[in-house]
Amino acid sequence: MLAPHTVAVMQIEFQILRQTRETAPTIERFTVEADPSETILSCLNRIKWEQDGSLAFRKNCRNTICGSCSMRINGRSTLACKENIAGEIARMGLSPDETPTMTIAPLGNLPVIKDLVVDMKPFWDDLAKVEPYVSTASRQLPEREFLQSPDDRAKFDATGNCILCGACYSECNAKEVNPEFVGPHALAKAQRLIADDRDDQREARLAQFNNPDSGVWGCTRCFYCNSVCPMEVAPLDRISEIKGEILDRTTKDDSRPVRHRKVLLELVEQGGWIDERKFSIQVIGNYFKDLKGLLSLAPVGLRVVARGKFPTHFDASEGTAEVRSLIAAVKAETHEPHS
């Protein structure tokens, strides 16, 4: 006769940030006896069913498909149905005799309705701004369905995995400081349409996403969206792909963000690193053509000179030749013209 299966039950403390539209957030503590393999969502269910039925949170599929149970778990946005107790203990580096504490909070960058339930309207509104569907003209039904080669379909495999859970939006530093920025989720979906050969609005879309505030240049490249995405969409990578498409079609005179990237690359190619004496003047001052930009540099420039921190000369790095060869190799691989 087989021995009965034993479950290593342990005490888990949950610190849940609770609030409503009208009340300030407070922390409420609950203790749950749980198996280390149990998910965070399972524990929240038990708290609601057995300890406090007023606790509010979203859930649906319980299988990392719908994205409904997105929340902040121990400081990072993720899916409660995906993360389990054992994984969180390992992530926190706790010893076996320590009582784990799980801190649960609502998603960031979104208004809280109650407890862990947030108002997703700003999230959906930002997504709508990129018109995340194949353009109307291209969707006129032909005699047969639209066909794509496996290679064409593979161009947007990553964005096809997005379940719109909001984790990337919650952690986006750019969205936190710039309400005009549409967010990594929207731009990831935008890249999917730019890569889709069935859409006939590619150039118009790229012009829209070239906006310095709402478009790809609003991204601060903090990498948080990539680190928290539960579906490995890598929104930052998708944003970089859009930037590459824009840069292929623009010159230094088109906008300051474009000039920033192109001047940076030129200066590194020339000297192995950035000549700080030229960088601000060329990017912000637009090679002495932007008087307002030049004047904005004056206060900082004067302080730098007064403190003796303005470089009087520029020495190229010892590895300049190697840097140039690497840049040339990348340009050859991407078919980008040389500066």
Lay out the secondary structure.
Elements: E1 10-18, E2 26-34, H1 40-50, E3 70-73, E4 76-79, H2 85-92, E5 101-105, E6 112-114, E7 117-118, H3 121-129, H4 150-154, H5 157-160, H6 167-171, H7 173-177, H8 184-195, H9 202-209, H10 224-228, H11 235-249, H12 256-271, H13 276-283, H14 291-306, H15 320-334
Parallel strand pairs: 1-5
Antiparallel strand pairs: 1-2, 3-4, 3-5, 6-7
Helix pairs in contact: 3-8, 8-9, 8-11, 12-13, 12-15
Describe this protein's structure.
This protein has 339 residues and is of the alpha+beta class. It folds into 3 domains: 10-117, Ubiquitin-like (UB roll) (Roll); 120-249, Fumarate Reductase Iron-sulfur Protein, Chain B, domain 2 (Orthogonal Bundle), CATH 1.10.1060; 256-334, no CATH class. Helices cover 42% and strands 11% of the residues. It has 15 helices and 7 strands. It has a 5-stranded mixed β-sheet. Strands 6-7 form a two-stranded antiparallel sheet. Helix 3 runs parallel beside helix 8 (184-195). The chain is globular, with a radius of gyration of 25 Å. The termini are far apart. The mean pLDDT is 91.
Write a brief caption for the model:
The chain is built from 15 helices and seven strands. The chain has 339 residues and is an alpha+beta fold. The strands form two sheets. It has a five-stranded mixed sheet. A two-stranded antiparallel sheet has the order 6-7.
Number of strands: 7
Strand content: 5-15%
Largest sheet: 5 strands, mixed
CA-based shape: globular
* Unreliable residue stretches: none
Helix-strand topology string: EEHEEHEEEHHHHHHHHHHHHH
Which range best describes the helical content: under 10%, 10-25%, 25-40%, 40-55%, 55-70% or over 70%? Answer: 40-55%
Output the structural class: alpha+beta
Any idea how many domains? 3
Specify the CATH class of the largest domain: Mainly Alpha
Question: Roughly how many Å is the radius of gyration?
Answer: 25 Å
